[in-house]
Amino acid sequence: MKTFSKFLKGGAALMALMSLTFCQKDNSGGESGGGNEPVVLNQRANCFVVKPGTAFQFPPCMGNSKNNVEATSAGLVWQDNASLVSSVAVENGNISVKLNAGQEGNAVVCALNEAKDTTWSWTLWVLNDAIQDVTVSNSAGSATFMDRNIGALSANDLFGKAIGNFYQWGRKDAFPSQEFNTLESVDKKIYNLAGQEIKVRYFKMTEPSLNNIPVAIAHPLTSYWQAKQAGVTDGNYGWISTMWNSEEAAAIGIDTLWNNNSKKTIYDPCPAGYRVGDAAAWAVVTGFQANPADTTTVTDKAYTPDASITSTWDERYYTQYQYQAYFRGARYGNLFLYAGGDKTHQGVGEGLVPKAKASSICIWTAKADNLSTVNNFRAFAAKATPSFVKATETEPPYVKVGALNTSSGLNFGYNCPVRCIKEVLE
């Protein structure tokens, strides 16, 4: 089994450079309130699904492993609803959280050691809507997916609630997605425990570091990237290392961060019982494209005037069809994939501005290049973009989704949504 313990002293230098503590400690005690004892969650994962208003505790676990991290105190990294989290603390060795009633959203909480360094962090996925399993089957096989991306508050909402959180490939740490906006792509707003707006840091790595994983764990509010390097075939701008060499990268298991022989890893961002969708599962989804009737383009039907559409025919036909549809995603069999876009390594939003030529489906898979044999440094996303078909004299305009490609190589520094599949336990 590959390990991730090897790193150069440059990583320590980078950690010192980035020694700002983004995990805000809470001293309110984390009491459950109302005389109710907090619920104890015994699952071990990097993400917990809970109801609004819940008081709960969970062990300071390293993902799905049996190991715990040091947790002298605890705090909030970010929340995308300023009224979501009431308190975060450590009680009886567990992370103890109290949520405010009637508030949905996402938050990231962390454990701190005596020196106030972050030792690990976890995503809290707070929603009323029940998450469902969706099983898809065709000639390519069968796979069971969650009905939504991690962090999505709805499986079917067409106006932003179905986007979910964003992740750099291989990291457990959730980042806020893009704000649903008809004019431009901007980061979704996030807040500290006091309700003050804060920002994700997009940090360019310059110090030599073979393994930046320990630094990333200590700074869950920082999205890392590096400068493009000569001689690297693809996949520059990654967060994991500044020293791209296939042999060295393979030795620390970079390509197995989210998939170790089809097994869940300690860096997997999915809740207990699920893991990041692998190549076999996504092959089932793309298998629906063999029959065009099995793939359905989804628009919100909220057409708006588009003066760029021109006509050579009689104006009376033209005016009634002078509209542009907004692409929101596609259904593959009974699985809906929302067009939530992505963010580049520098945090530039892509593919969400709801115009047909800009919106895109982009969801990480668990697959990365095999660094033992390939001198590329990419991870792969399931990606589809639409095309806009103009009106004719007799037909209104429409949007048609293009082919879903699960071999879309992106660098590790990108931020994209994640869709989980059911974990098969042996």
- Number of E-state strands: 31
Poorly predicted segments: 1-22, 26-35, 311-322
**Tertiary shape:** globular
Biggest sheet descriptor: 5 strands, mixed
Classify the secondary structure makeup into a structural class: mainly beta
Q: Please count the helical segments.
A: 5
Overview of this structure, please?
It is a single chain. The protein has helices at residues 9-17, 213-218, 246-251, 279-287, 315-320, and strands at residues 24-25, 39-40, 47-50, 55-58, 73-79, 85-91, 94-99, 105-112, 118-126, 133-138, 141-146, 167-168, 190-191, 197-198, 201-205, 222-226, 274-276, 295-299, 304-305, 323-324, 327-332, 335-338, 342-343, 349-350, 361-368, 379-384, 386-389, 398-401, 405-410, 415-416, 420-422. A five-stranded mixed β-sheet has the order 1-5-8-9-3, with no helix packed on it. Strands 2-4-7-6 form a four-stranded mixed β-sheet, with no helix packed on it. The chain has a three-stranded antiparallel β-sheet with strand order 18-21-22, with no helix packed on it. Helices cover 8% and strands 32% of the residues. Strand 23 (342-343) and strand 24 form a beta hairpin. The chain has 426 residues and is mostly beta strands. The longest helix is centred in the first third of the chain and has 9 residues, at 9-17. It has five helices and 31 strands.
